[in-house]
Amino acid sequence: MIGTALLPALYRQLASRYPDLLLATEELGTKTLIRDLRENVLDVAFVSHHAPLPPEFDAVPVTDMEIVWCALPGHPLAGKERISIPQLEDEPLVFFQSSFSLRERVMQQFEDAGVTPHILHATEQLSTVQSLIRSGTATGFLLRPLAATMPDLAVLSLEPQVFVHVSLVWRRSQKPFRDMSRLIELCRQVPVL
To answer: By C-alpha distance, which of 4, 2, 188, 186 is closest to 105?
Structure first.
């Protein structure tokens, strides 16, 4: 989801500022990204998180994104201003897999409220989440920038509001090479979102 909101703006800014910068991106869940950084599979990653990152990493904060609940406009809860976790106790939900920090953040909200979520389906695919919500089979959680691109859905803030941080992350022990340094500097100087 972060890629959907972040990558178009990032690529535009990189192309105008550093047209010769070589960048290859792929989308993975937060836990997978952290593992791949630790194993030197990745040099740098955009990671969503709600807790401080492990001390072995350096990071540049990029943006914060609100987690919102999404449903069809005719859903009985869709007319509310905000939604609380206890109101979703018996609601069939589509969730992202456990490697995604959004899921971890939402699950923490359920735990804090003493509510066990009714997870109908878990997936890594955004298209599956969208399909299950749009069909009325389930409701689910998305990041606000992505939900804003779906005017056919009712989008409600949680009460209290819940956010994830997005940071550009790399191993502290790694000396950034030229293109990596340029990406880090771009994220420090220019708001990507």
So the answer is: 2
Q: pLDDT in tens for each of the 193 residues of the chain?
A: 677 778 888 888 888 999 998 888 888 888 889 999 999 999 999 998 888 999 999 999 998 999 999 999 999 999 999 999 999 999 999 998 887 888 999 999 999 999 999 999 999 898 999 999 999 999 999 999 989 999 999 999 999 999 999 999 999 999 999 999 999 999 998 666 5
Dist CA 34 CA 38 (whole Å): 6
Q: Are 139 and 57 in contact (CB under 8 A)?
A: no
- CA 13 vs CA 21, 43, 60, 179, 190: distances in Å: 11, 20, 17, 14, 9
β-pairing, 154-171 with 57-71? Answer: antiparallel
Find the radius of gyration of the CA atoms of the chain: 18
How far is 74 from 8, CA to CA, in rounded Å?
Answer: 32
Please give the backbone phi and psi of residue 2, each rounded to the nearest 5 degrees, phi first. Answer: -65, -40
Residue linked to tokens 């009460």 = 159
Q: For residue 46, which phi and psi values (nearest 5 degrees)?
A: -90, 115
Q: Please, which residues bridge with residue 164 across strands? A: 65
Give the amino acid at 19. Answer: P
